[in-house]
Amino acid sequence: MSERREDQIWQMVVTSIQEHEKSQQLNVWLGRIRLAEIGDSKIVLEVANQFFRDHLDNHYYDIFYKHFKEILNLTPHLIFRVNPELKLPVEPEAELLPPPEPPQVAKSGKRATGVLLGAVNPRHTFENFVEGKSNQFAYNACRACAEKPGERYNPLFIAAGSGLGKTHLLTAIGHFIHEQDTSATISVVTAEKFTNEFIAQVRTHNMEEFRRKYREQCDVLLVDDIQFLAGKTGTLEEFFHTFNSLTAASKLVVLTSDKPPAEIGAFEERIRTRFAHGLIVDISPPELETRIAILENMAQREGVHLDSKVSTFIASCVRSNVRELEGALTRVLAYASFHGVEVSEDLARKALQSILREAEEKVTVEKIQDCVARYFGIKVADLCSQCRKRKYTEPRRMAMLLCRKHLGLSYPELGAKFGGKDHSTVIHACDKALEDLEQDEDLRNALLAIEREFIP
To answer: pLDDT of 352-406, one tens digit each?
Structure first.
């Protein structure tokens, strides 16, 4: 394998690690590692000295193993090898410690210049965020907050499942404000890091400094995964007072969570109410068109031309979240680079064969019903109801036909899944659906679009 190809694969691994692993210390090491050899039997990573080698082997072997396995679709044997000719900019022992916080200031809480605090991904900007129906409202709300911090939608609460882009939008707000107002002090922090800082300051009896940092010095507070504070009474109480102090001073607070405030049961009612006082936005799993756009955007950043058939295929395979979607493309690109061939639909199918198997195993009646209901803009309950309005009967017949086609269920089994209908009703529905499909091209296109949502 050529040096260029090794470097390309290593960059994909680095990108994957940075996207998925929350470790500032590991990020320090990544630029000091060289992918020297790669093959079916072993992968050799070179470092500059024995200390470096032992530290990576003892602390990060599993992380490197996981990402090489995901990207190359093979089971690697990793070897860390010392190469004294590799030069480090600084001694690695010094780099093991987290980067220091910016200098503290006088107790007045004022800074001469602003700063963006926290481990932020430089690629998480509004410009790199792909809009779609599933995230447009959240995107617009975040832009509005960033353009007039503290004046609109304060607080802003972003609720979304894992990997759907809430951290990207949260960080984008920080980048945008920092670029527009260099005097603003912006803190981007996870709820876990806030908790760890709080505990450390309690132990050292230094709460005055902690409160000065987050209440007096902070102009914008962006907190990721606030649900982490559930059950942590002391930390949550401290954060609640910090939250009230900032919002009362018209300083922007943006929170993210995997669920809206009302569904975080471990939070007291007064806290849930305050968090919901501003604007709550959610992000849904991206629809097919948005998934394709995300893939094409990522490919463009990597300098790779992606054929529309390939992007459509990958987008059809991975539907759950953006993180898995980007991971799938990384795997395809690495697979092509590893074998020295062009990216094609056949190659993508080979690279993603494990994902395809999982997708096929996960198809259920409930999943088909959900896809049909979302496509036609109705509720799943409508598919199982007795209502005979055309807006419900046509989707119901299509859902029954798809279940029959892809799951092989008997007519009585299908009837039980659709509100207890008898087998003769189901037979008639499937026959009518086939008849309609033969005569209506728009309906055939709708069926194909729905199938792409649950079958690669």
So the answer is: 876 666 655 567 898 899 989 989 999 999 999 989 898 999 999 999 999 888 7
Scanning the structure block, which residue is given the tokens 């860390």? 80
Distance, CA of 300 to CA of 289 (rounded, Å) = 17
Domain 363-454, CATH number (from 1.10.1750.10, 3.40.50.300, 2.40.50.140, 3.40.50.20):
1.10.1750.10
Q: Distance between CA 416 and CA 426 in Å, rounded?
A: 10
Q: Which residue carries 């396995």 as its tokens?
A: 69
180-214 per-position pLDDT tens digit: 988 899 999 999 889 999 999 999 888 999 999 99
Which listed CATH number (3.30.470.20, 3.30.160.620, 1.10.1660.10, 3.30.300.180) goes with 3-95? 3.30.300.180
Angstrom distances, CA of residue 260 to CA of 226, 273, 427: 10, 11, 42
- What's the burial of 436, exposed, middle or buried (CB within 10 Å: 0-12/13-18/19+)? middle
Cα gap 361→69, rounded to integer Å:
22
Question: Which part of the chain is CATH 1.10.1750.10?
Answer: 363-454
- Please state the φ and ψ torsions of residue 383, each to the nearest 5 degrees: -65, -30
Fold observed for domain 288-360:
Helicase, Ruva Protein; domain 3 (1.10.8)
DSSP state of 215: I
Q: What is the tens place of the pLDDT at every residue in 303-356?
A: 788 888 999 888 887 877 888 888 888 888 888 877 778 888 888 888 887 666
Beta bridge partners of 190: 224
Q: The pTM is what?
A: 0.63
- Residue in the structure block whose two tokens are 């980067």: 99
